[in-house]
């Protein structure tokens, strides 16, 4: 099978094509696809990872924005008639339309320039997704998986871990891509909780509470929540208001959001 069709990576789409066969095999091993599973790939590019998966599952859905890549993808994967290509922007795609036969699994080498908003978009479908495996900029994966007290722990960490178990799997160097990016990449597994460990009564309030908490991360909770929570509120919550936001875990932020909702 030839993958020699010319296609210049487009900066506006954040394209970096994975070509390292050893890394591709390692990613597929982490995903561990099984025949009959409905796996959806975002940004399949020329199909390097797609082939490793669909050779096992026999069918696959892919979401690709670059219409010039689609004929290349179809040629490279012509042996797989059950490949369904959705020419669409993943940021606007309704992933629930693919769940008519059950939950889906999502994979992708996500464009670095939109990875964070795209993850937040996917989290809105968390009830329809069994797991997600992504190639992302290493710093984004470090932020997703960061624990309380880590320097990279912040809004993305809290919201991702509210919805999912996050596992930082392994690093991928720039040499594995064409063109090589200027930064290291990493593979992350995000597994939506089957039963939520902590339940926010109002998701918008949780998002707002986390944003307020980290708006000035070097300030104390007392300063950041001034006019929203009093020392008496913090006492009821069992949280020290002199702490900085990165010391709180997901449960603390959920409790803060629910306390504010109750007050309102």
What key attributes describe this structure?
single chain, 264 residues, alpha/beta, Rossmann fold, Helicase, Ruva Protein, domain 3, 7-stranded mixed sheet, 10 helices, 35% helix, elongated, RNA-binding, cytoplasm, rRNA_Ade_diMease-like_C, rRNA_Ade_methylase_Trfase_N, transferase
Question: What does the model show?
Answer:
This protein has 264 residues and is α/β, with parallel strands linked by helices. It has 2 domains: 11-192, Rossmann fold (3-Layer(aba) Sandwich), CATH 3.40.50; 203-263, Helicase, Ruva Protein, domain 3 (Orthogonal Bundle), CATH 1.10.8.100. Helices cover 35% and strands 19% of the residues. The chain contains 10 helices and 9 strands. The chain has helices at 21-31, 48-57, 69-76, 115-123, 138-145, 155-163, 203-214, 221-224, 231-237, 250-263, and strands at 17-18, 39-42, 60-64, 83-87, 104-109, 129-137, 164-172, 177-178, 185-192. Strands 4-3-2-5-6-9-7 form a 7-stranded mixed sheet. Strands 1-8 form a two-stranded antiparallel sheet. The protein is elongated and about 65 Å long. The model is unreliable at 1-14 (pLDDT under 50).
Principal-axis shape equals elongated
Please state how the strands of the largest beta sheet are arranged side by side.
4-3-2-5-6-9-7
Radius of gyration: 20 Å
| CATH-defined fold name of the largest domain | Rossmann fold
How many domains, in number, for the residues?
2
Provide mean pLDDT, rounded: 92
Unreliable sequence segments? 1-14
Helix content estimate: 25-40%
The succession of helices and strands, N to C, reads: EHEHEHEEHEHHEEEHHHH
SSE-based structural type: alpha/beta
| Number of beta strands | 9
Distance between the termini: 62 Å
What CATH architecture of the largest domain do you see?
3-Layer(aba) Sandwich
The H-level CATH homologous superfamily of the largest domain, spelled out, is Vaccinia Virus protein VP39
Mind describing the biggest β-sheet?
A: 7 strands, mixed
User: Mind telling me the CATH class of the largest domain?
Assistant: Alpha Beta
Strand content: 15-25%
The count of helical stretches stands at 10
């Amino acid at each position: 099978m030839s993958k020699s069709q010319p296609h210049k990576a487009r900066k506006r789409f954040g394209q970096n094509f994975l070509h390292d066969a050893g890394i591709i095999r390692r990613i597929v091993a982490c995903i561990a696809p099984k025949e009959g599973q409905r796996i959806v790939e975002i940004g399949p590019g020329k199909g390097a990872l797609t082939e490793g998966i669909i050779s096992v599952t026999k069918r696959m859905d892919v979401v690709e924005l670059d219409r010039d890549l689609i004929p290349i993808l179809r040629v490279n994967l012509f042996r797989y008639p059950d490949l369904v290509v959705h020419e669409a922007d993943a940021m606007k795609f309704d992933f629930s339309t693919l769940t008519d036969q059950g939950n889906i699994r999502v994979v992708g080498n996500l464009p670095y320039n939109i990875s964070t908003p795209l993850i937040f978009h996917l989290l809105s479908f968390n009830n329809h997704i069994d797991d997600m495996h992504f190639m992302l900029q290493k710093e984004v994966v470090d932020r997703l998986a960061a624990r309380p007290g880590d320097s990279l722990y912040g809004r993305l960490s809290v919201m991702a871990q509210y919805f999912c178990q996050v596992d930082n799997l392994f690093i991928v160097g720039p040499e594995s891509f064409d063109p090589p990016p200027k930064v290291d990449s990493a593979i992350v597994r995000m597994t939506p909780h089957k039963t939520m460990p902590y339940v926010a009564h109002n998701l918008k309030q949780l998002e707002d509470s986390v944003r307020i908490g980290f708006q000035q991360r070097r300030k104390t909770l007392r300063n950041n929540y001034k006019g929203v929570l009093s020392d008496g509120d913090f006492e009821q919550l069992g949280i020290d208001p002199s702490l900085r936001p990165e010391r709180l875990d997901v449960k603390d932020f959920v409790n803060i959001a629910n306390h504010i909702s109750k007050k309102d």
